[in-house]
Amino acid sequence: MYLTQEKKDEIFSKFGKDKNDTGSAEGQIALFTHRINHLTGHLKKNRKDFNTERSLVKLVGKRRALLDYLTKKDINRYRAIVKELGLRK
Question: What predicted TM-score, i.e. pTM, was given to this entire model?
């Protein structure tokens, strides 16, 4: 089970304005977080899968860049998405 269209629609409708709002920073961050969690679970079972490890590092970097963008653009949106996804302590 990876990522179906229904799951993507659910993520974007929850974190974006609607399911077609795929460009919002919050929607993209939520999607990246879902994929990061999936890849992390995969890597716990397959420690030597270095291609997946590289993909995971790239995804974390993309998510970090979007989070940095949100901090500069609107700190309240940043705090809301971090709290909702549980990214920080």
Answer: 0.91
